[in-house]
Amino acid sequence: MNCDRAQLALSARMDGESVGGHRGIAVDLHVEGCAACQAFVEGSARVRTAVRIRPADPVPDLVDHIVASLEQSPPLERATTTAPRHGAPLRRAMPVAAALVAGAVIGSVIVGGPFRGRDHEAISAQAVAQGVRAASPDLDSFQGTYEIVERGLSPEVPERRLLMRVAFLPPQRFRLEVDDRTAYPSAAWTPTDITYVEDMPATYRSGPTGCPSGLPADACPTTRATVMTTSPYSPAAPLPADLVIPLRTIGSAKGIRVLGREQAGDREVVHVEATFDRAAPMFPFLRLGGTWRPFFGGDRVELLLDAESWLPVRITVFPADGMRRRDWELRFGLPIEQSNTAILDVRATSIEAGEPDPTLFEIPGWEGEILDLASLAERLGYRPVTPTFTGSLELATTLAPPEGVGAPRSLLVYTDGLDYLRVGERPGRLAGRAFGPVGPDATHVTLPGGGVAYLEPAADGLGRRLAILGSDTSLFLETNLPLKELLAVADSMPVRGLPAVSP
Questions:
Q1: Where are the domains of the chain?
Q2: DSSP states along 261-283
Q3: How far apart are CA 211 and CA 498, in angstroms?
Q4: Which of 122, 339, 356, 411 lies 20 to 30 angstroms, CA to CA, from 211?
Q5: Largest CA distance in the chain
C-alpha cells in the first residue's frame, strides 16, 4: 500500500464510502506508520469542514456479497453454464407503452398535496426488481419534465427550485437539461443551468463550475465560468438512465425496502425506500456541475414508481437519524437536519408521448465517424473479437476511439432499449493489470467454461465491469446487465482469459 492509494481510499472513506475488508485493513496499517498520510487525514478534515459541497457518492453495486465468493459458488456457476447460447432472450419483455400515452400529465397526482388512499398493498422487493429489470429493454423512447426542490443549500438560499427535462432515444441517446429558477439574493450566485447530451458514444456537457455556498463569493471566482466539454469517447455508463427506468438503483431486491402499492390520485404506484448511496443514479444532475448541497450516504430516499410502467414519478430525500449523520453534519458545517423534512424532492410533472426530436441529441462540434464492423476491421488491421451470445442485445455501434493511455483500439456497443453492453479491445497482452475501467483490486473470477476474468461492481459512474486478458489481446466488458448474464456473455467470447502476471 503506497501513499497515493492510501489517500484515495481515505478520501472515499471521508465521503461516507465503505472501505472495508483487506483494503481497509491495509489502509489503516499504512496510516499508522506514515506521517504524511496522518497529516493528509488531519488536513482533509479541516478542508471538508469549510468546503461543504461535493458530488453525489457513487452507488455501490449490490452483488458484492456474491462477487466475494464467486469462485466458491456452485449454484451461480451452474446457472451461468446453462444460459442460452444462440440469441434466446434472457428476460421476458414488459410493455411500457402505457407510460407514454399522448399528453399524459401526472400533475396533481404527484405534485399536489398529500397522497390519497394510503392503504398499502403488499408487494415483494423481488417482484419490484423483476418488473424494473423486465421494463428496461422494452423502452423505445421517453420525454419527461421534472420539478426539483432543494433545501438547505445555505442560510442565504434555504430553498431552490429548478426545472429538469430528460429525453431518451435508442440506441443510447440521452439529453438532460436543468433550468435554475431560483431567485438568488445577489449576482454573486450563479444559477445551476446544465445541459448534458449523450449521442453514443460521444458526450457533451455545459454548466457552471461548482462553488461551495459556505465560502465568500470572491473565494470562488470560477463559479462564474461555464465549462463546456465534448468527449468523442466516454467509457461511462449512460448517466440519466435511472430517471427513465431505475435499473441501477433497483436491479436487485437486496438493499431496498418496499412499503407496498398505494393509490396516488388515479395512478397506482409502488412505494420503495433505499439509502442515498443506493439511489445515487437517480440524481445524475448532482454530478454534472453547478452548486448543490451535500448528501449523506445513509440519507433515506423514498421512491414512487408507476406500478404499470415502472417509471419513477417522485424521488424524495430525507436526512438520516443517528450519530453518524450528526458527525457528518458537523464535518460539513451543516445544522442539525430533521429526518421528517425533505431536503431534495424530484417530481415528474409530465411524460410526453412520441419520440423526441433527434436533433436534441446532436453534440456541438463533434464530427466522429461510426463504422460498420467490416470497415472498422479494415481500418484497424484486425477484426475485433465479438461475443457469440448477447441475449436480446444487438450490435448498435462500432468505432475506433482516439488513442490514449489505456484506451481501447476498438469499441463495440450492443443495446436493447435501456440495456447496454460495451466491449473494448486492445491487441496485445497487458501483463500485471486488468484492461480498461477495471482497477487492480478487481475480483478474480473463473468463467463457467474455463478461463479467468477480473470483475468490478458498478460504481464511479460505470456499470458492472469485467476484464479478460488473453494471450494476444485484452478485453473489457461494461454493462448494466445482471451478473449472471454478464458472465454468460464473457464465457461466449472466443478468448480464454489468463491470470494477470505481475511485472
A1: 3-50, 91-354, 369-491
A2: EEEETTEEEEEEEEEHHHHGGG-
A3: 47
A4: 339
A5: 65
Quick check: 391 and 89 in contact, CB under 8 A? yes
| DSSP letter assigned to residue 72 | G
Region for 35 from its dihedrals, namely left if φ exceeds 0, alpha if ψ lies in -120 to 50, beta otherwise: alpha
Distance CA 371, CA 379 (A): 9
The Cα 219–Cα 381 span in angstroms is: 53
For every residue of 284-317, which 3-state class applies, written as one string?
Answer: HHHHCCCCCCCCCCCCEEEEEEECCCCCEEEEEE
Say which amino acid occupies 321.
Answer: D
Pick from 93-97, 231-235, 438-442 the range whose average pLDDT is largest. Answer: 438-442
Mean local confidence (pLDDT), 79-87: 36
Task: Please tell me the distance from the alpha carbon of residue 63 to that of residue 448, in angstroms, as a whole number.
Answer: 18
Q: CB neighbours of 27 closer than 8 A, spacing ≥ 6?
A: 1, 6, 9, 10, 13, 19
CA 244 to chain centre: 12
Q: Which cell numbers hold the place of 227?
A: 465549462
Q: Name the amino acid, one letter, at 200.
A: M
6 versus 63: the higher-pLDDT residue is: 6
> Residue 298's closest CA among 336, 332, 326?
326
**Residue 209 three-state SS:** coil
CB 458 within 8 A of CB 486: no
Neighbour-count burial for 379-418, b at 16+ CB within 10 Å, e otherwise: eeeeebbbbebbbbbebbbbbbbeeeeeebbbbbbbbbbb
- SS3 per residue for 150-179: EECCCCCCCEEEEEEEEEEECCCEEEEEEE
Bridging pattern class, strands 194-199 and 410-416 = unpaired
Here the cell at position 211 is 462553488
How many Cβ atoms sit within 10 Å of the Cβ of residue 302?
18
d(CA 436, CA 188): 41
Residue 15 CA from chain centroid, whole number: 17
Query: Nearest to residue 156, comparing CAs of 270, 64, 291?
Result: 291
Considering just the CA atoms, what is the radius of gyration of the chain in Å?
Answer: 23
Cα 257 to Cα 271: distance, rounded to the nearest angstrom: 9
Give residue-wise pLDDT tens across range 40-76.
Answer: 665 554 444 334 333 344 444 444 443 444 344 333 3
Q: What is the pLDDT of residue 321?
A: 93
Strand-pairing partners, residue 466, are 455, 477
Q: For the structural domain made of 369-491, what CATH number should be given?
A: 3.30.200
The span from the CA of 408 to the CA of 235, in Å, is 10
Q: Which CATH number fits domain 91-354: 3.20.20, 2.60.40, 2.50.20, 3.40.1350?
A: 2.50.20
